[in-house]
Amino acid sequence: MESASTEKPSGVSAKCRDTRVEELWGLTSFFGYSTNTFVQAVNLLDRFLAIMKVQPKHLPCIGVCCLHMASKMVEEESNVSPTHELIRISQSKFTVSDLCRMEKIISEKLSVEPNAVTALTFLQLYYSAFTTLSAGREEIPSIGSLEAQLKACLCQLVFSKAKPSVLALALIAQEFEALQSTALSKIVQQFQRHLKISDSELLHWKELVAKCMTKYHSSECNKPDNKKLVWIVSRRTAQNLQSNHFSVPGLPTIPEGSWDESESEDSCEDMSGGEDTPFGSPGRKKSEAHGTSGRLEERSSSGERRRSGGSSISLMSGGQAEE
């Protein structure tokens, strides 16, 4: 990695950056981190990429490191995931020591502040003011819905160039326009004049937000917070996992009925009276327990063959099952 002032042909593309931010969103949802943690992580990532030339191969470590640093700043200590667990779930190839070294580099290059002002900070302030000024007379979207839209916007590099105060107001203004509320529109204009935001600037970011939301709400959008973890394993590992899955017998569900002590004693007496029959049960003869339908044969472990009800399963040395 080199500073941004140094000319270097390699670098992280916008698509690569956006993909990494989407993965951070998925990790945030998986570990139950707050929206503030995600926003702070994206803030650290974009600031670091703005001053450093980074090779794409280093981006996974940088992204996970930013999320880990943000979680330590925002979350309770007991809720912060261990570094090795974070690396394992992110399916990254770097080590814990690599993550610690990267954390040191980011801390040296950036002025890491626990309470950094972000677009989420303004969004929450605006929402609190709108709730107070409307006094329940107007129905406004929930803060959770607005936060989800903000996270979707942050997954696109273009929004990293917006001022936090402008982006938050553009997001609220675009959402309130759909409600067609004159009262809420007037409140937006008051904030715009107070913050000295020009009409052209606000309109520009409103259009970008609307375009992003159209894509986000489309059926083709694979939302990062709903993505499933996918593990890539070798063919041999997949075969072993499959054979182990089918070799485990299913156990019947134990009913949660009342325990009858007298029936338990009778059952124990019947089982003890079965002499050499380990499968003896009330009302069942010894010959029935050893009938062909319940025959069970076992052989040596080197080529173990089991037969039950006429079917046979041969367990090979590699752990594969052959029927």
For the structure shown, list the relevant keywords.
globular; mainly alpha; Cyclin-like_sf; four-stranded antiparallel sheet; single chain; 5% strand; disordered C terminus; two-stranded antiparallel sheet; Cyclin A, domain 1; 13 helices; 323 residues; disordered N terminus; Cyclin
What does the model show?
Belongs to the cyclin family. By secondary structure, the protein is mainly alpha-helical. Among the domains are: 2-109, Cyclin-like (Cyclin A, domain 1, Orthogonal Bundle); 119-226. It contains 13 helices and six strands. The protein has helices at residues 14-31, 35-51, 59-74, 83-90, 96-109, 119-134, 143-154, 164-179, 182-195, 199-216, 235-247, 261-272, 286-289, and strands at residues 2-3, 52-53, 296-297, 305-308, 311-315, 321-322. The strands form two sheets. Strands 3-4-5-6 form a four-stranded antiparallel β-sheet, with no helix packed on it. It has a two-stranded antiparallel sheet with strand order 1-2. Strand 3 and strand 4 form a beta hairpin. Helix 1 packs across helix 3 (59-74) and helix 8 crosses helix 10. The longest helix has 18 residues, at 14-31. It starts with a strand and ends with a strand.
Average pLDDT, rounded to a whole number, is: 78
- The proportion of residues in beta strands is 5-15%
Ends: how far apart?
55 Å
Q: Which ranges are low-confidence, i.e. pLDDT below 50, for 5 or more consecutive residues?
A: 3-10, 274-323
According to CATH, the fold-level topology of the domain at 2-109 is: Cyclin A, domain 1
| Number of distinct beta strands | 6
Structural class: mainly alpha
Task: Name the CATH superfamily assignment of the domain at 2-109.
Answer: Cyclin-like
What pattern of helices and strands is seen along the backbone? EHHEHHHHHHHHHHHEEEE
Number of discrete helical segments:
13
**CATH domain class of the domain at 2-109:** Mainly Alpha
Q: Largest sheet at a glance?
A: 4 strands, antiparallel
